Hints:
It is built from twelve helices and 27 strands. The protein has four domains: 83 residues, Barwin-like endoglucanases; 101 residues, Rossmann fold (3-Layer(aba) Sandwich), CATH 3.40.50; 157 residues, ATP-grasp fold, B domain (D-amino Acid Aminotransferase, Chain A, domain 1); 83 residues, no CATH class.
Amino acid sequence: MGTPLPLVKDESSKNCFFVPLSYFEKLNKKGTIPNEISFGTNTAACEIIPHSHSEKWLLSANLWETLSIPFETSVHVIHTDNMLHIGPLIGIFTAGFTSQPHRPLGARSFLFAKYLTSAQSVGGYYFIFGSHQINWESGMIHGLYYTKKGWEKRSSPFPHVVYDRIPNRRAEKLPILQDVKKRMENDYFIPWFNSGFFNKWSIYEKLQTNDAVSSYLPETILNPSIQEIEHLLDKYQHIYVKPADGSLGIGVHHIIKRSADNHYYCRFRKDEKNFLQRYKKLNELIESLFNENRLETMVAQQGITLLKMNKRPLDFRIHANKDIDGKWRISAIAAKISGRNSVTTHIASGAKVKTVHELSAENESFPPLIKKLQHAALTLSKAFDENIDGYNGEIGFDMGIDVNGKIWMFEANSKPGRSIFTHPRLKEEEFVTRKLPFEYGVFLAETALTKPGLILS
């Protein structure tokens, strides 16, 4: 995919698309000059004409209206047979809209505005929409664009690609939202990426059969019995019990078996406070902290003795994204040092963020370990493509290094949180992680248009 060029409305012509002379010559070499143009699912007949004024695209005003192009911006042009496709047009699907024009997505409005602003450097058109904004009969969506004027509602045709930003698992399960995805994928063949939230057990079950990454996975048991928990504690001395569909560290319990006093200890967080409780018997701990049958929704995971800094365990958040070539790359990495008596390294539990440069400056043993982490994250990302259905464009990994230097993956998130980016020295990485999903959207759009067999297979 080449560099995007400005798309400008031309008031002096009709049914024409003016392209740079160099681009016209490339079309000519292919033997056929297209006679149609499209934007999303809208198409129109046109004449392709070369111009030598500057590196930009000029589109007749009447075609501008026919195609429902919202405003002038830099775009890519994709050639297929007798058609040129302007865009790409990428929709961000979400829920949780409000009636406030300046905060149409409530507290998430600022985050989405930042996402759409970063997309401008990629080239193309990007808008946000929900199920209530789709007109299936006309094939149009009354979505939200973010411009210099702020939030603007505009009607656009169905997009080339959809980026899934459903906010939570509860919304994900709503039939009306599931129906939108089903219809766009099956009836319109629109690629839909980063769909759904990962389930811890499902991820473990699929990756443990992959020889390239199985060594990174702690032993994990779904719906553990008290006997299975006891066995894991005898084997590893400490384990984590957490919801299979959990996120943000909510509901995580760290259970420790101490041979010194023959007691069981459990660290957990409740009502924004960290707790440490002691029990004589494991069944007393389970009965006290887990409601009847609650273990049926949990996983028990091998405890790992992590490297420490200032006597506190640390792990790593690693963001992996696909770029405009559809290749995985590490877009951000940071260490999280656990808070005092905290069960996790989540920021809300008192953890502190450090950049890898800060770690390396304090301890020269970290640079080679960071390289191992990055290699493992890329290997895991590629394994997701092999073992997990759908189009995955971004993954947030929670990973650790044990006292022996071994790499472990604790969790993978399809919609990773962004708490590490509160660190002032991660501003560049923060921008890159917002930009790359749209680069991948451009890649998917081009692939879907030029090699539809790859998308449908």
